[in-house]
Amino acid sequence: xxxxxxxxxxxxxxxxxxxxxxxxxxxxxxxxxxxxxxxxxxxxxxxxxxxxxxxxxxxxxxxxxxxxxxxxxxxxxxxxxxxxxxxxxxxxxxxxxxxxxxxxxxxxxxxxxxxxxxxxxxxxxxxxxxxxxxxxxxxxxxxxxxxxxxxxxxxxxxxxxxxxxxxxxxxxxxxxxxxxxxxxxxxxxxxxxxxxxxxxxxxxxxxxxxxxxxxxxxxxxxxxxxxxxxxxxxxxxxxxxxxxxxxxxxxxxxxxxxxxxxxx
Length: 264
Ligand SMILES: [Cu+2]
Hints:
Elements: H1 2-10, H2 13-23, E1 29-35, E2 46-54, E3 57-65, E4 75-78, H3 104-111, E5 114-117, E6 144-151, E7 164-168, H4 180-183, H5 187-191, H6 199-202, E8 204-211, H7 231-263
Antiparallel strand pairs: 1-2, 1-8, 2-3, 3-6, 4-5, 4-7, 7-8
């Protein structure tokens, strides 16, 4: 590296700048994700996601179809930045109670905690995991579109491709809305102290990992523990469950009010 440095210093100023740019850590990388119902939840939903990671800046675009129309869909990066935890998209074997649905709690051991909340505005930390009022809403035809550029915690950009995205909310009984009659009450929301939220609203609908040769490596959930620069975000992930509890209470209350409004 010393040789390269000397060479660079020997070059004219402009050439040095070009060299520095070409070898710097800020070169953007593009990744694609295909999000499908790996859980076997019969959601009928699927999405494609494009990610551009430039240092610790993430530009993400998601386009999906087959979602519960006119309804909010919580979406997150799940997983862990710690190499000793292997998380990935759940399959139907995660349906421990055999009711035909992998619900949020049943999926958590497989897909891991919320690491990043893909909200439409404001906070993107795990604390906004169930901030339904800031999650994308499917249109009347069940199409969902999302695009946002997010500044990540230091060091998170390089590891993001090893995580996976989960989108929540499905219409199990095909009546184009979330309702208690379909799957009953969300046990996840209830465990957070919020009653009368339909299980349909919180069950996972799609999940996907990075696909394509451009990723350079196969995502397996966990990654090496690295140099500790993501301690902050890892701590945030651990904090996620407790933090989400409070955020969920707020978000779900807003959501419940919205449901009440819809009924009027
Ligand atoms: Cu999620």
